[in-house]
Amino acid sequence: MSRVQSIHCVQYGYPRLFTSDTVQRPSQEIRHAKCKPPKDLPIQPKYLIAFTVGFDQSEIINAAISKFSENWTIVLFHYDGRESEWEQYEWAQRAIHVSAWKQSKWWFAKRFLHPDVVRPYEYIFLWDEDLGLDNFDGEKYIELVKKHDLEISQPALEHSRKLTWRMTMRRSNSEVHRETTESSGRCTDRHKPPCMGFVEIMAPVFSNAAWRCVWHLIQNDLIHGWGLDFELGRCVKPPFKKVGVVDAQWIVHRFIPSLGAQGEAVNGRAPWEGVRERCMYEWTIFHKRLTDADEAAQRENTEG
Length: 304
Description:
Elements: H1 3-9, E1 47-53, H2 58-65, E2 72-78, E3 96-99, H3 105-112, E4 123-127, E5 131-132, H4 138-147, E6 152-157, E7 176-177, E8 205-207, H5 208-217, H6 239-242, E9 243-253, H7 271-303
Parallel strand pairs: 1-2, 1-4, 2-3, 6-9
Antiparallel strand pairs: 4-8, 5-9, 6-8, 7-9
Pfam families: DUF707 (PF05212)
InterPro entries: DUF707
């Protein structure tokens, strides 16, 4: 098909010139006269859900996938090299599988969810594998996010003694909340994360526009994403309105140390201890880079 023909066919649903997506298309040759839309091309889903998975959590993921309709493209990032074992699940036949040994979801996302590739999707879900979704419905979640105009969000977390941040805990008397009532030392400024404009990196949901910014925040050489949740508000204006937790659709964090258990035991230390140490180290580097960038930008503005 020539360049001119491609441009004329845009109105009939052909992919725009020089764009990409994640739709899986037939491999055989298809000929269509007069640029009529081919019937055998798949419908483009509106949303994308990516889970970073190991096969040991396959039953949890299988239950989770049932909460998302065909409006979602399913992407599985495999960190354990066992991607072929998922073939037992019918939905896995239409999922996109990407495998890299012992890598985190932020490593995968930086390399395989480039903003230009996921441009057709209204929202991008980037979730961990150890989440219980019994009280969650994907379509209803999207309705609430649109209703409350949230660009960056997450479903609320059911109460647990292991929860890290009070900000993400479910409230029973609201659809959405954007701030916390926490009064502990973790919340030093009520107008900044983790008190306001904050979601965790466990189960974030991004609008397409927000993801384009967040993708650039993700550091190519830092794989765990620690500290990223404190900086997500940079990508939306104003963060106190555009970032929120959806109480009416909530999930349960099972606290399974799956990827953490993929580390190596050294000098009698458990594998997860080495992974956690790496996470803390990366957080320090990430914070320094952002501080340096902010200072450089401030100097340029002053000199300009």
